[in-house]
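Task card 7
Instruction: Convert sequence to structure tokens.
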Amino acid sequence: MSSLREEMDEEELDHPNASPEKRYFPESLDSSDGDEEGVLACEDLELNPFDGLPYSSRYYKLLKEREELPIWKEKYSFMESLLQNQVVVVSGDSKCGKSSQVPQWCAEYCLSIHYQHGGVICTQAHKQTAVQLALRVADEMDVNIGHEVGYVIPFENCCTTETILRYCTDDMLQREMMSNPFLGSYGVIILDDVHERSLATDVLLGLLKDVLLARPELKLIVNCSPLLTSKLSSYYGDVPVIEVRNKHPVEVVYLSGAQKDSFESVIRLIFEIHHSGEKGDVVVFLACEQDIEKTYELVCQEGSNLNPDVGDLVVIPLYPKEKCSLFRPVDETEKRCQVYQRRVVLTTSCGESLIWSHTVKFVIDVGLERRQVYNPRIRANSLVLQPISQSQAEIRKQLLGSSPSGKLFCLYTEEFASKDMRPLKPAEMQEANLTSMVLFMKRVDIAGLGRCDFMNRPAPESLMQALEDLDYLAALDNDGNLSEFGIIMSEFPLDPQLSKSILASCEFDCVDEMLTIAAMVTAPSCFLHVPHGAEEAAVTCWKTFLHPEGDHFTLINVYNAYQDTVLNSANEHCVEMWCHDCFLSCSALRMADVIRAELLEIIKRIELPYAEPAFGSKENGLNIKKALLSGYFMQIARDVDGSGNYLMLTHKQVAQLHPLSSYSITKKMPEWVLFHQFSISENNYIRVASAVSPELFMQLVPQYYFSNLPPSESKDILQQAAGHLPTETVNKDQDVCDKCPDATEQRCTIQ
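Output:
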């Protein structure tokens, strides 16, 4: 350690990147009263080495806060490990500061060697976390967001070529490897939140092993929770581990019997805390979104009768995939306000990484979660209610780590925690549909990175199903490698089925409409969660958008109406009011607009044919269904009794159309539907469905897929429909790219 300190001290004498411990802190800069007396002369001001400008007073204020973080005392040991090793594991609790401080230290390292190997990139499992961290770190480094520090999330890039430190979602770094397989732009790669075990993070963990061998100068930092430390260290060959612990112990209260009546227990605890007079916000971890909605209604209903003297109760539902703007700093006006406001956040497992606040003093944990587990045999997700892992329980406890008087209320027993909870969170790779992952792996195999040593190997059955689906979608050639068609599909940041539908729309002259559908089903739902009592008004508004051909067409109507409103509105506020009045999500529609623009850019970049929009004509409606069937022929269902009970074509599951489907609202159920989404749960709902005919299905379905379907009445009906088709109209597995010039196909390959 002493050798490193001496080395850094010598560098700091000549280098402008002086470490914070060595910096001079003039009181005039550290104060915020604006008094100019005693300000140092310009030549004495310390310059920020990242942008060459003098540090602001806010920098020194934030520096003091950073020095209070648990990880700060490990800075020198980390820097020494970084200098002497290619891989370093940082093990720490969720509030120790590793996600914000380690990337800054790595940026200092890259600066010290003049960025000769590149900059720093730090991955996150959630896009909200990536954005929040980038904003926070830019503030702490006293630089501009989008310049020296930036972020890259799906369909949003807030970086320039000059960006030194990038935060990104793990899937975006994975996609970057398709064009830059050895990640030559970066000298340090940080994989954060590895304990989340997302599919993209696990793939990166494996692929980066080969990248590290090819690039000895590259540094890899892996941030994780303590329970995963030993496994990660051995996975990379017994690499050094920096361990960090939070300061404050947390009081844990186990409530036996509370799990049986979890709703009543949660409501009772919330109001007991509120009436106790103890200050602090509350976070409640529930099992699923439906539980959030039910708890929200009950708390709001009971909270309306509160005595004003105990203060207001502000209930905030935090759903997955929604932007998190929680826990803004309390301003001075609120501090002086006589009425105390306590915030209660209702969330699921998604909130474990999204909630950062020193105001949280109470956490209520039901100990259960509803997870999506993919079944490759039936090509559908099942929503399974199961205990959370011990690592998740520990992360929820760590939300209180910075609070000296925090309390965690567990609605389960200590015995349940030790016996029924598995130690680690299941890897998404072992529970998810792997079709997109296999398509990506086939793509990087072209660059020699196809072999991947996964930390947890996926089930062989899931891999076989993924390969089979890609074969059905014509993404593979006869040797099992990516076809030219598959390479083009991998260019789109979408599910392979959706990519196939977009490419098919080039043949059927409906690209404009298909891009709108793709954007709308990729963005969060445009239909808002309707408050209790407003259901009828919402449905009345939504009826104006309904299209007789189905939900995919209804989504086009919604998007087109939104676009018309944007064009004809005086300002953004008018657009937001229109969305509010129509019970539509303005943020979701904005996101759909951004997604559509990026998909259109990809279409133009690889020079695929693009026809003028013709939405509304009968021919165009038929062409849209052809394009959809080209990608979603594996997602077909038939109404077996005329009452809306739809039997899946590939298995024996029965489902109903979602209540918000255009067919459910109009009470007109088609016999055959193509659907976008289906999950096995309490309500087996089909989401986003449109009517198709058996004849159209048989015209477009790959014959070898149809021959592999299990025997059923539905298959017999389809076989009869095929007998009425002219021979030349039966699907010939045509390559959609026939319309593309040969040069276009050449441009689709990796450069």
